[in-house]
TrEMBL record:
Residues 16-70 form the HTH cro/C1-type domain. The keyword 4Fe-4S does not apply. The keyword Aminoacyl-tRNA synthetase does not apply. It holds the Pfam family HTH_31. This is Helix-turn-helix transcriptional regulator. InterPro entries: Cro/C1-type_HTH, Lambda_DNA-bd_dom_sf. Keywords: Plasmid. PROSITE patterns: HTH_CROC1 (PS50943). It comes from Komagataeibacter oboediens. SMART domains: HTH_XRE (SM00530). It comes from the Bacteria.
Length: 140
């Protein structure tokens, strides 16, 4: 049975994307405030690159939330995932290495798929290999 893994940057990115959309802001709106270009902000939301504390503070401010609230939400989501058998690694590079070495045994969860997971339940709505892997993992 494949392991489902994600990373802290991926979870943070999904949470940032959720709050950005909740405030009906574009990636460009947040990128400008955070001092990065839109493609960099997209990579942040997809968990592909890290952000600085200054960027986190600027993004939080424009989304009308505190940095500590954002980070608490990240921790809540990580606990939520853990309860469902998802392993959260500290570094994106760990996830990349594991999925590359064990492509048939590990599914990486990031970006839009991770964001959708936090928004859409139950898992039956997904109809994907990720949903199938969750069902198998939770039957233990």
């Amino acid at each position: 049975m494949p392991e489902i893994i994600t990373s802290y940057p991926a979870v943070l990115g999904a949470v940032l994307q959720f709050y950005r959309k909740k405030q009906t802001l574009s990636q460009g709106d947040i990128a400008r405030e955070a001092g990065v270009n839109t493609s960099t902000w997209s990579r942040i939301e997809n968990g592909e690159t890290a952000m600085t504390v200054e960027q986190l503070a600027a993004a939080a401010e424009v989304m009308c939330i505190t940095p500590s609230e954002l980070l608490r939400d990240v921790e809540t989501k990580i606990l939520f995932l853990k309860e469902r058998g998802v392993i959260t690694k500290k570094y994106r590079t760990e996830v990349d290495r594991i999925t590359k070495e064990n492509s048939s045994l590990a599914i990486s969860l990031a970006g839009a798929a991770l964001a959708a997971l936090f928004i859409s339940f139950p898992f039956e709505k997904f109809g994907s290999s990720i949903a199938h892997a969750f069902k198998l993992k939770n039957k233990k």
